[in-house]
Design goal:
By secondary structure, the chain is α/β, with parallel strands linked by helices. Helix content is 29%, strand content 28%. The strands form 6 sheets. A 9-stranded mixed sheet has the order 2-1-10-9-11-12-13-14-15, with helices on both faces. A 5-stranded antiparallel sheet has the order 17-16-18-20-21. A 4-stranded parallel sheet has the order 4-3-5-6, sandwiched between helices. The longest helix has 15 residues.
Length: 483
């Protein structure tokens, strides 16, 4: 068996920078020693929680536990007490790892605490005897109903996803990644921290995202940027009058967006200003990464590219039959198989069984179309973004992109609500660029009808000061309600 992090267990690039958070950093040799010290403390534990602040200690804690063969439960420090109580009761961690000085809410205080010291010295870590099917992480994901479910992610899934992305993005140990993503989620933790370490490269975490931080790091040797659409929107808004930001982005090898669809409007503004196109990929907690635009492929706005190496992907119609007509219009649910998948929802055999087909395909709940050349375009979640109106199946995503091209629209979300004639009518939720003079329903409906088709135009518009979003920048459509 092989290590998750060969550069840490095989005597790799010892003096090369591994992690940097602000003015604090560790070389590979220092990280191996600090991870070894964590491993000594946690080895033999069933599961350990990590208080996942955007700090050096979080990265050291996770790497140390994984190299000791121990399962990590990342905790979102912004979770409420009810959610934390559920997660801790469900996952039953034996310890919580944290930075010295971090304070915990009530439910976490009951756990035995281990403070992580990035300067500690311990024996050289070695995880090569740990089985690849062993659980690496339990990441909690909120469904549409009930408390969050713990997705058990095996070590093979972490390795398979990171190696597939290395192939797709030509990701090597020479790359230096910059990002400001939270570390309790797959995007920031698995891709953003474990990814560079598996390659033997470096990561510079901004702590808190800022366009100034992006310009500084990409302008001083970083080669890749990971972000969510909210971050890229702020970048697009900041580009005019910021030549240092334009230059920094233009010099990057790869700009990657994920966790939600990047509006085409922001995609095009960044490309026009910098000459660099943002690459999108598609994944979820249960599957890690499924598809991506390749570094050597066409970064087409509005698409998430093609299936990654080792990932089987199919589209399925409502009656369960596979969709084979890749015409860019036929909508189907995405189902996937491969080594990238989670193994189960912890303590939820019912939910686990319901999420897989009899022949082992995971039902993602995401709906998409495929272009003739195989590129995938996500149109939304089956539960909230597939609108059945007037006999048509319409994806909310393309309407949102069309609305965002209107100069009077700053933010937009689209939902469906019951309609006695159409079955469902299309509702546009709009944050106006000029709140004193928002665009009218007639203006927006005509704008969408001209770009897409008349049956895709909104029938209702509702104006908001801001769209409700979660920590990853995704719009929480269920908070918008109906009517």
């Amino acid at each position: 068996m092989s290590s998750l992090f060969p550069a840490l267990t095989g005597g790799g690039p010892g003096e090369r920078a591994a992690l940097r958070f602000g003015d604090r950093s560790l070389t590979y040799a220092q990280l191996a020693s600090a991870a070894g010290a964590v491993g000594e403390r946690v080895r033999g534990s069933g599961r350990v929680a990590v208080w996942a602040t955007p700090a050096l200690e979080t990265a050291v804690a996770v790497v140390g536990a994984l190299l000791a063969g121990v399962t990590v439960v990342p905790l979102n420090p912004r979770s409420g007490e009810k959610e934390l109580r559920h997660i801790l009761g469900d996952s039953a961690p034996e310890l919580v790892l944290a930075a010295p000085g971090d304070t915990f809410p009530g439910p976490v205080q009951a756990l035995t605490r281990v403070d992580v010291d990035p300067g500690a010295t311990g024996p050289g870590p070695d995880d090569r005897a740990v089985d690849e099917t062993a659980p690496a992480l339990v990441v909690y994901t909120s469904g549409t109903t009930g408390p969050p479910k713990g997705a058990v992610i095996p070590r093979r899934a972490v390795a398979a996803t990171l190696d597939a992305l290395a192939d797709a993005w030509r990701w090597t140990g020479d790359d230096v990644l910059v990002h400001g993503l939270p570390l309790f989620h797959v995007h920031g933790l698995v891709l953003g921290i474990l990814g560079p370490l598996r390659r033997g490269g470096s990561v510079r975490h901004l702590g808190r995202f800022s366009t100034e931080g992006v310009a500084r790091e990409l302008g001083s040797g970083a080669t890749m940027l990971f972000g969510v659409p909210t971050m890229y929107h702020r970048i697009a808004e900041s580009l005019p009058g910021r030549p240092e930001l334009v230059e920094a982005l233009a010099g990057a090898r790869l700009l990657v967006s994920g966790s939600a669809a990047l509006p085409v409007h922001d995609h095009e503004r960044i490309a026009a200003a910098t000459g660099r196109r943002v690459v999108e990929r598609y994944g979820m907690t249960e599957t890690l990464m499924n598809t991506s635009v390749r570094a050597d492929g066409e970064p087409r706005a509005g698409t998430v590219g093609v299936p990654l190496p080792g990932v089987e992907l199919r589209h399925v119609a409502e009656d369960g039959t596979p969709v084979t007509d890749f015409d860019g219009e036929t909508v189907g649910e995405i189902q996937v198989r491969g080594a990238n998948l989670f193994t189960e929802y912890l303590n939820r055999p019912d939910a686990t069984a319901a999420s897989f087909t009899a022949d082992g395909w995971f039902r993602t709940g995401d709906v998409a179309v495929r272009d003739p050349d195989g590129y995938v375009r996500i149109v939304g979640r089956k539960a909230t973004d597939l609108i059945k109106s007037g006999g048509y199946k319409i994806g909310a995503g393309e309407i949102e992109n069309a609305l965002l091209e209107h100069p009077g629209v700053r933010e937009a979300a689209v939902t469906g609500e019951p309609d006695p004639d159409l079955g469902e009518r299309i509702v546009a939720w709009v944050v106006a660029a000029g709140p004193q003079d928002p665009p009218s329903l007639e203006d927006l409906a005509g704008h969408v009808a001209r770009r897409l088709a008349p049956h895709k135009r909104p029938r209702v518009v509702r104006y908001l000061d801001a769209l409700p979003r979660n920590d990853m920048g995704k719009v929480m459509k269920r908070s918008l309600g109906h009517g």
